[in-house]
Amino acid sequence: MNGQSRGGDAGEPLAYRVVRGSFWLALGSYFQLAWGFGANLILTRLLRPEDFGTYSLALFWFSLLNLRTKIGVGQAFAQRKETTPVLVGTHLGLDLAAGFGTLFILGAAAPILVWLGYPPDLAWAMLGLGAVGLLEAAGATPIILLDKSLLFQRTALVQGLAFSISYLPAIWVALNGGGYWAIVAQNAVCAALVGLGSWWAVRGDPAAIPGRWRFDPAVARDLLRFGAAVGLATLGAMFLTQFDNFLVGTFVGVAALGFYDRAYRTAQWPSTLLNVVVNRGAFYTYARLRDDPPRLHRTGTMVLWLILMTGIPIALGVVLAAPELISALYGERWLPAAPLLRLLVVYSVCRPLWETAAALFVALGRPGLNTAFTVLQAAVLAAAGLPLTLLWQATGTALGVGLAFGLGLAVTYREVFRLTGVNLWAELWPALLGAAIVGGVGWFGWGLLPQVSPAAQVGLKFGYAFGGFWLIMLGLRPRITAGRFAYVVRLLRGG
Predict the structure, then answer these.
(1) Which phi-psi region, left, alpha or beta, contains residue 229 (left: φ > 0; alpha: ψ -120 to 50)?
(2) Cβ contacts of residue 196 below 8 Å, gap of 6+?
(3) How far apart, in whole angstroms, are the C-alpha atoms of residue 129 and residue 121?
(4) Kind plus residue range of the DSSP H or E element containing 474
(5) How many domains are there within the chain?
(6) Are 94 and 73 in contact (CB under 8 A)?
(7) Domain for residue 421, yes or no?
(8) How confident is the model at residue 346 (pLDDT cuts 50, 70, 90)?
(9) Are 30 and 276 contacting, i.e. CB atoms less than 8 angstroms apart?
């Protein structure tokens, strides 16, 4: 490729290709969100809490021992400006070697984990994920080749089709009593189809011709040297996002982890939607404004406001409607997840705030700050999570997650304020006050209303959360809130 576009892309402006590709990526993300949501509802009704708990705990151990994420050669390959058959062959060789190495380590770790008291099912699920990781290693190289050529539409199409098809065998396995193997099967089929589809989609690239590949030790050393720092950051992020699964699964049990996992996954949906809507273009906007501090400050403040004005009423709705939401989505046997969902919903607000700050740091050329703050949050979770889990079981773990994200957010936005002047507290305090008023009235007043179906209660409570919160914000800050709403409407109209 050597930085040149191929086929019909020749002569197209780079900006046009990037915007068009971003559109396809966003479309693919929304499709996978919607399809995955529906498919997971079916799987949750078919499988037991123990199945989800076993898979989640196995995923922690697999992620901890996975060599591919530790060496970071994918990011090292992606940042190389010139793509050659030698680079492709070296990356593929390193990735496959790491995949086989991971499978070997998992095989050695499995009997040790059983000896330590973990259930044998955990070991089998972990080995299954190791095989999935090997499939992912075989298909990672063509995905990077497509992305480097800005052929995002091909990536989105391949991943969307693979993701959709992969749930069909998973549901079949679940219907036939396969338990946690249904989730492993979904991952395996998806990885295999993505790999096959990506190699087919990149077949016209000269660097993708197998006969030209060659493994170069010097290139391998360069890739590993660059990827080491990336791997360290990935390890910190993995620890932060999955250590709670280890705590609940190890010290409370896999059934409790199943309830915790469903609560955590449900709490992720709002933040995932916010990240796609708000933060997807934030990095490019911040990068363009890095040399214009006044506009960067205004843009950062506006993004912050949008996240709070959307995320907080979503969180309020989840807190007020948690039992009805769990019952309507998953069935009444999953109701023990409702109290955990109320605690973990803080994640739905904290994560988009953290993601937009992370995009800002990278755009300003300070990516090391993300690693430092991720390590800090992981350290807080490690220090507070274990004693809280031993005291209050899964509830204590959820409190530890909230504490880690809250403290991490405070430290992160202190640095954001220093770099840009964007003040989180100035936007947060009126939002928290409004949330307290709306939440308090709803919590104590909802029982006075007539009972309706769980689905209807979810709709009513979310409608109350959004309407009540926005009205309170208009009352607390009428000029600022009305002006910003009007500005957003003008942008949506293209004015």
Answers:
(1) alpha
(2) 139
(3) 12
(4) helix 454-476
(5) 2
(6) yes
(7) yes
(8) confident
(9) yes
In whole angstroms, what separates CA 296 from the centre of its chain?
A: 26
Residue 365 pLDDT grade (very low, low, confident, very high; cuts 50, 70, 90): confident
Instruction: Kindly indicate the confidence band of residue 27, based on its pLDDT and cuts at 50, 70 and 90.
Output: low
On whether residue 230 sits in a domain, the answer given is no
| Share above pLDDT 70 across residues of the chain, in percent, rounded to a whole number | 89
Residue 21's pLDDT band, with cuts at 50, 70 and 90, is: low
What's the pTM?
0.85
Looking at the fold, whether 264 and 318 belong to one and the same domain comes out as yes
Same domain, 313 and 218: no
Would you say 297 and 374 are in contact if contact means Cβ atoms under 8 Å apart? no
Q: Do 276 and 385 share a domain, yes or no?
A: yes
Q: What is the pLDDT of residue 2?
A: 40
Rg of the Cα atoms in the chain: 23
CB 476, CB 433: distance < 8 Å? yes
Q: Is residue 87 in a domain?
A: yes
374-379, Cβ contacts within 8 angstroms, sequence gap of 24 or more: 374/233, 374/236, 374/237, 374/240, 374/408, 375/236, 376/407, 376/408, 376/411, 377/240, 377/404, 377/405, 377/407, 377/408, 378/236, 378/239, 378/240, 378/243, 378/404
pLDDT at 492: 64
Pseudo-torsion of CA 273, 276, 279, 284, nearest 10°?
A: -170
Quote the CA–CA distance of 142 and 159 in Å, as a whole number.
12
Q: What's the confidence (pLDDT) of residue 35? A: 86
Of 319, 283, 273, 299, nearest in space to 468 by CA:
319
For residue range 223-279, list pLDDT tens digits in order.
888 777 777 777 777 887 899 999 999 999 999 999 999 999 998 877 777 766 555
Q: How far apart are CA 233 and CA 227, in angstroms?
A: 10
The residue segments making up the domain with residue 310 are 252-495
Q: Identify the three-state secondary structure at position 253.
A: coil
Amino acid at 380: V
CA–CA separation, 460 vs 483, rounded Å?
28
Same-domain status, 53 and 159: yes
- The residues, any chain, with a CB within 8 Å of residue 2's CB and separated by 6 or more, are 82, 83, 84
Answer whether residue 247 is part of any domain: no
Answer yes or no: do 262 and 363 share one domain: yes
Residues 165 and 273 in one domain: no
Angle at 77 between CA 76 and CA 81, to 5 degrees: 105
